[in-house]
Amino acid sequence: MADPEKLFKVNVVTPDGLVYSHRSSIIDMRAVDGRREIMYNHAPILTPLAIADVKVKRSREMSNEVDHIAVNGGYIEFSNNVATIIADSAERARNIDVSRAEAAKERAEKNIKEARQKKDQQSLERAQVALRRAVNRINVYNTIK
C-alpha cells in the first residue's frame, strides 16, 4: 500500500459537475502531444488532452485499483499535488452505456460516408470526432470486462 503522503488528489470536472474525485499514486493519460504520467510532487503542468482513456491508479487497504475514465479532450492541470481534468465530457468505465456508444459509432460511420459523398469537409470533421469519442467510450468500457 502506498504511503498516504505519496498520494495526490485527482478531480475530473465536466460542465455537468464533478465526475470523479479520488486520491491517486499515478495518473496516466494521453496529451495531444503524447502519453504522460503524473506522480506525487510532479512539476506543475497544464496541457491539452486527446480523446482517450485516463488511468488513475489509486490505493486502498492492501490492494491497488485502476480506474479508467473516457475523456473526450479537455485539459489537465497539475499543481500542489492536485490534478484537475476539465473536459466537455467524461465517463467512468463502469458508467458507460456501451449500447449507446455502439449506436453513436454506427451513426458517426454513416455520417462520415455521407460527408465524403457530399464533399462536406466540416461535416466530415465533426463525424470523425464523434467516431473517435464513440470508439474511446467502447474501448474504455471493455477495460472492465
Automatic annotation (TrEMBL):
UniProt entry keywords in alphabetical sequence: ATP synthesis, Cell membrane, CF(1), Coiled coil, Hydrogen ion transport, Ion transport, Membrane, Transport
Sections of the chain in a coiled coil: 98-125
Pfam families: ATP-synt_DE (PF00401), ATP-synt_DE_N (PF02823)
Annotated ATP synthase F1 complex delta/epsilon subunit N-terminal domain residues: 8-90
Keyword Coiled coil: yes
An annotated Gene Ontology molecular function: ATP binding
GO cellular component: plasma membrane; proton-transporting ATP synthase complex
Membrane topology (UniProt): Peripheral membrane protein
Record keyword Protein biosynthesis present: no
Domain ATP synthase epsilon subunit C-terminal positions: 95-140
InterPro entries assigned to the protein according to its UniProt record, in alphabetical order: ATP_F1_dsu/esu_C_sf, ATP_synth_F1_dsu/esu, ATP_synth_F1_dsu/esu_N, ATP_synth_F1_esu_C, ATPsynth_dsu/esu_N
Predominant location: membrane
Record-stated family: Belongs to the ATPase epsilon chain family.
Role played: Produces ATP from ADP in the presence of a proton gradient across the membrane.
NCBIfam families (alphabetical): ATP_synt_epsi (TIGR01216), PRK00571.1-3 (NF001846)
Protein name: ATP synthase epsilon chain
The species this protein was found in: Lactobacillus kalixensis DSM 16043
Lineage: Bacteria, Bacillati, Bacillota, Bacilli, Lactobacillales
